[in-house]
Write a structure and sequence with these properties.
Immunoglobulin-like
């Protein structure tokens, strides 16, 4: 007598959408699309402000700015800045040849990473010869600064750090 092998009955076929692997394979590109859209939303909402819109005009003005800085160097102008957090006041002492104590100075402060914090301050001289202004935001950390008289004539520029141990300075030694 021959030995008969009985096979179990075939299992019912499971539809593809109830299996693990098709969903796993679909999920990989799906997650990639979701994160790409999230990255795009972040990039659009928080666009970098590091590049100037008027870069061409700023590049053309470089020689004029260098001439103004040469005038400041010839006059040996040096500005020492301070920030009194208690009074929320910026103070500036200007030393050099031909400094006019009654003059009005313009200080442009540009934040290195956040253009929304940029500000232009008009400093007025007090009786003690110290120029003062109230900035619109607290001055912490590094800033790019440009100082000039309201009518023009010279210019001091440089990077200053209000958190540095020594007071920030602009000029030949700043």
């Amino acid at each position: 007598m021959a030995h008969v092998v009985r096979l179990p009955p075939p299992a019912a076929a499971v539809p593809w959408y109830r299996q693990f692997w098709p969903w796993f394979i679909i999920a990989l590109p799906g997650i990639s699309v979701i994160f790409s859209v999230a990255t795009l939303v972040i990039a659009v909402r928080h666009a970098d402000s590091l590049v100037r819109d008027d870069y061409y005009a700023a590049g053309m003005a470089v020689n004029r700015d260098l001439d103004l800085e040469r005038v400041a160097a010839q006059r040996q102008l040096v500005a020492s800045l301070g920030f009194d957090a208690a009074r929320a006041e910026l103070t500036l002492r200007l030393a050099g040849l031909g400094v006019e104590p009654q003059a009005e100075l313009v200080l442009q402060l540009s934040h290195p990473t956040n253009a929304a914090r940029d500000q232009t301050l008009r400093l007025r001289s007090a009786a003690d010869g110290v120029f003062r202004a109230a900035p619109s935001v607290p001055l912490r950390g590094p800033w790019d600064a440009v100082l000039s008289p309201a009518g023009g004539g010279w210019r001091l520029s440089g990077r200053i750090d209000f958190d540095a141990p020594q007071p920030p300075r602009l000029g030949a030694s700043g």
